[in-house]
Specification:
- Two copies of one chain form a homodimer.
- By secondary structure, chain A is of the alpha/beta class.
- Chain A folds into two domains: about 190 residues, 3-Layer(bba) Sandwich (FAD/NAD(P)-binding domain), CATH 3.50.50; about 160 residues, FAD/NAD(P)-binding domain, CATH 3.50.50.
- Helices cover about 30% and strands about 30% of the residues of chain A.
- The first copy, chain A, has eight helices and 19 strands.
- In chain A, α5 runs parallel beside α6.
Chain lengths: ~350, ~350
């Protein structure tokens, strides 16, 4: 049995799955989370239900957390960050800084599962008026209201009668430097649209999109359901301007399917903000000398054929730290990284024994 | 050390990654492939280059195969099928039928990595004329020509001057019962379009699509590159009919962006056929009593939060046997399944020891 644990950085879906996996293989784990609670973005950003099956985010993440609690092989450190790292796996010297001060840890291997951050729509040259109009909100603000069980116009506190989503805010956009598609926003927006319609059956809901990227089973499990059961209106269009008229927000642009100008008053406009590498992802990449791929996420070697292995021996990446990822991606990568990190420890201990 | 190996069924990307992973964790593997060669669909369907980085399929899969050859922990059985299974993991009795006859194997755990098959466009009420016109071919036929280094009109053997792809053939289609999006066809078509333009710089290439599902980094790594560097024309449109005029094939439908009828003569029409569960996937599901999810693939429990675990203890699924999957999905799931199967064996051996 090796003495140095696998250090897992980040307690979201990828990190939690990795922690369970490493311990199931019989190796020790130290999982570090900078927030005071495990669960990752679904918890810290107050997600309501998860895509695609609309399971409650608190319950789903709670079940993942429960699976790693009270395991003698798993040391959980919340409110803790990594401040220094030196040496090489399987003898990495790492400093953990928690609420009770600093502590040294020798890590045998590392899984970086530091995830993403939501795009800040203020960056987009104010075009969408996020910081200007109370009733222009984001996917994340919407999750918070849905979780609280009350979806209202922020300006009045009243239920809205007409709501729209604008897709690809901070994604597929060379102007702001985010050339990637964030993969999940089409699914999340459609899911939120369904939740709004369930909560407010009188409210009309529109989704303005470029391409609806409802890949795999999302096609019928979310997209068709949204259209057929929940009567959500998907309009292929480009929104070029958001202004105020009276107490409403007016969305202007072009309906590219009908080939005509689009001008629609809305009570709430929801910006479908994309993913960017989180600060933690950027910091940990620098800390462990991991190269960035061209979009600023952590690079894996071998492209599609090696999703969790970085160029630095013994250091692995899982989930959205490696690029836009849905929950399936994060969980599969977490499991794969658990295998790779455990195999790395095993090989290292065989070498020592030989 | 447990004596019963992990039985991995299928020697494609998911199965190969799983085999390497299980052996790296110190557990024995028997990997069974019904074809006479490992490598899976990229090899048996003669893929040219892989998505997204256009690496040579023979070389990429060859490297994966090489990683598992000559490993004392890995028993490779090509030209072999599973004909019976009984009992429960970790004491499953399985019959392997190879070229030298039948053989019994006790398997400790199973990873089903039996993949997908390409949609047969003959099924689609002949609308696309696949069996009628020589110059109507599929993504798969195109791969074969690209791999051979010569892309020609099948009817004449001459290089085509005008080629189009038609997306979503056998996907997103309730008529034929395939309600899912096959996830990869937008990327594969764009990749093939690039390869055609590289090979035949004079040839004009069109892609008729509903939504271009170029998620994640495919957006700029393939889609933008296809448009900007390779001048491929992406047209949002619906194709309703394919007929012959003289020695060309005429594509009729609607350009939904321009809102006008579409009629274009083509030298070659390429049908972007989607994924369906392979026969092996259906057979192995029945053999091991694995439930099908609603689309006919093997169901995992826990939806997005448990991608490789089936309801049957000790039996796992990886890659496109569980639903439409790209290479990243298959490799991550293969790695995750390796972890789960090895952890299952470990737990079983701890129980025996206790």
């Amino acid at each position: 049995m090796p003495e140095n644990p696998v250090l897992i950085i980040g307690g979201g879906p990828a990190g939690l799955e990795a922690a369970r996996g490493v311990a199931d293989l019989g190796y020790p784990v130290t999982i570090v989370e900078k927030e005071d609670r495990l669960g990752g973005t679904p918890i810290h950003c107050d997600y309501a239900a998860l895509t695609p099956n609309l399971i409650n985010a608190e319950e789903a993440m709670g079940a993942m957390v429960k699976k790693i609690e009270n395991d003698p092989l798993i040391d959980i450190r919340t409110s803790t960050e990594i401040t220094t790292a030196s040496g090489n796996a399987p003898e990495l010297q790492v400093t953990l800084k928690g609420q009770s001060g600093e502590e040294q840890l020798n890590a045998g291997s590392v899984i970086v599962a530091t995830g993403f951050k939501h795009f800040d729509p203020g960056k987009e040259t104010q075009m969408y008026g996020y910081y200007e109009f109370d009733d222009v909100i984001t996917l994340v603000d919407t999750e918070r209201m849905l979780k609280a069980g009350k979806f209202v116009r922020p300006s009045t506190g009243e239920p809205p009668k007409q709501v729209c989503f604008i897709q690809c805010v901070g994604s597929r956009d060379r102007q702001i430097g985010n050339q990637w598609c964030s993969k999940v926003c089409c699914g999340i927006a459609s899911k939120e649209a369904i939740e709004i319609r369930k909560m407010l059956p009188e409210c009309r809901v529109f989704v303005f999109y470029i391409d609806m990227r409802m890949y795999g089973f999302w096609e019928d499990e979310i997209y068709w359901k949204a259209q057929e059961e929940y009567k959500i209106n998907f309009i292929r269009g480009i929104v070029t301007e958001i202004t105020r008229r009276g107490d409403q927000v007016v969305v202007k642009g072009e309906d590219t399917t009908m080939g005509r100008p689009l001008e629609a008053p809305m009570d709430v406009v929801i910006l479908s903000v994309g993913m960017e590498p989180s600060e933690g992802t950027t910091q940990m990449a620098k800390m462990f000398n991991l190269p960035f791929e061209s979009h600023g996420y952590i690079e894996s070697i071998g492209g599609a054929l090696n999703t969790v292995v970085t160029p630095v021996p013994g250091i692995f990446v899982a989930g959205a730290a490696g690029g836009p990822a849905d929950l399936e991606d994060s969980v599969s990568m977490g499991g794969a990284a658990a295998m790779k990190a455990s195999a790395f420890l095993r090989k290292a201990s065989l070498k020592v024994a030989a």
